[in-house]
Specification:
By secondary structure, the chain is mainly alpha-helical. The chain has a single domain, classed as Glycosyltransferase (Alpha/alpha barrel), CATH 1.50.10.10. Helices cover 54% and strands 10% of the residues. The protein contains twelve helices and 18 strands. A three-stranded antiparallel sheet has the order 1-2-3. The chain has a three-stranded antiparallel sheet with strand order 12-15-16. A hairpin with a 4-residue loop joins strand 13 (284-285) and strand 14 (290-291). It is globular and about 50 Å long. The relative contact order is 0.12.
């Protein structure tokens, strides 16, 4: 049985103390790399996605924990994000900056802009700073002007927003002009931006994004989300991403919850339910209690990736909340959480290992923090479960 206090304890006693150590009091923001021995690499580039996710983490945690010190940490990260990561000449967020805040990779990516909007919107909800909301809307309008065409959102751009190849968000041997992953996080960002101030324009964009998921991204026969597309939304590869599907199952419902019940959102919640069920049937190992990584063609990648397990706990518990008679979803969430506690949490640092191989071993030199290894998925899992699980008296 999962208890709320377990997630509260892991958040407060493990994750927050680990990330508190990464505050850069000299150049601002947080350090961008921590190796497997907990050694901070102070001169490593700072990924803007990582900075945005850390801003989100502290903003949300300050509300969950009712702790002003966490909001002060969010203030610190916001000043760096706003002051050093936004391109004052061409607009938008850089992909990365050097340790001292000077530009490193000046690529502009829709995915990256979306995460900044997401973090800024939640930071505004936590602290009420109008300059944060103003920056969120500056990025929102830039995304709508520069990062989309009449059919939806594109991916990668040079510093001046001229198109470039999408190597950063393409994998599995394809080069995608549109991705499910980017669209999912634009949906997530706009959900929080709409929650922040109820903009009618953002509301309309949310409906348009949900329509794209329904008509272009969701594969009704397979009950999965296709992953990589050309510009015309032709799927480029037979790929089933279990982590993204279970994550999307609850993020789509979160957007629908914020929008309110109507014909569109009712249709989308049936899709989210199908995603949870297909993920459970196709990707969940009932013996080991883990969610596999992905299936490409007939080959299943059975690695136990940290973020996939975190999203599975939330996604399966969410599916159980929707359909309480389906106890298998609750059992899956409980089983995966048990696996995480026993295998994925580093007992020395409190952070999570990045992955465990199919045979149960892991690479002992995995970094604890790097541009893609962040407090977003595991921190969000803790905070979602704190909000969802009942308080025991």
């Amino acid at each position: 049985m999962m208890e709320r206090k377990e997630f509260q304890k892991h958040l407060v006693d493990d994750l927050l103390p680990f990330w508190n150590r990464l505050k850069d009091t000299v150049y601002g923001g947080c350090y961008g790399y921590v190796d497997h021995n907990q050694q901070i690499v102070r001169d490593h580039d700072k990924s803007v996605i990582l900075m945005s996710r850390i801003l989100w983490f502290y903003s949300k945690a300050s509300m969950i924990c009712q702790d002003d010190s966490l909001l002060k940490m969010a203030d610190h990260v916001f000043e760096f994000l706003a002051g050093r990561c936004e391109d004052q000449k061409c607009g938008g967020m850089y992909w990365s900056v050097q340790y001292d805040g000077t530009p490193a990779d000046t690529t502009k990516h829709t995915y990256n802009q979306a995460f900044a909007v997401y973090a800024l919107a939640v930071y505004y909800q936590a602290g009420g700073r109008q300059d944060a909301l103003d920056l969120a809307y500056r990025l929102y309008h830039l995304m709508e002007e520069k990062c989309r065409d009449h059919d939806g959102y594109l991916e990668a751009f040079a510093r001046d927003f001229s198109p470039t190849n999408n190597e950063k968000l393409s994998e599995n041997g394809v080069m995608a002009e549109r991705t499910m992953n980017t669209l999912l996080h634009v949906l997530e960002a706009y959900t929080e931006l709409y929650r922040a101030d109820g903009s009618a324009e953002v509301r309309q964009r949310l409906y348009q994004i949900l329509h794209l998921f329904q008509k272009k991204i969701y594969h009704p026969e397979k009950r999965i989300l296709d992953v990589f597309f050309d510009r015309q939304y032709h799927s480029l590869i037979d790929l089933e991403s279990y982590g993204h599907d279970i994550e999307a199952s609850w993020l789509i419902d979160r957007a629908c919850e914020v929008l309110g019940e109507d014909e569109c959102t009712i249709a989308m919640t049936s899709i989210s339910q199908a995603l949870a069920e297909s993920t459970y049937q196709n990707g969940y190992d009932r013996e080991i209690c883990v969610l596999y990584n992905e299936r490409e063609g007939n080959q299943i990648d059975r690695q136990r990736i940290w973020w996939v397990q975190a999203e599975a706990v939330v996604g399966f518990y969410h599916a159980f909340q929707k359909i309480p008679e389906k106890m298998q979803y609750l059992q899956a969430a409980e089983g995966i959480w048990s696996y995480i506690r026993q295998n994925l949490i580093d007992p020395k640092s409190g952070e999570w290992y990045e992955s465990i191989r199919q045979d149960g071993t892991r690479d002992l030199r995995q970094a604890l923090v790097h541009p893609w290894k962040c407090p977003y998925h595991n921190g969000r899992m803790c905070m979602e479960m704190i909000e969802r699980l009942p308080r025991l008296t």
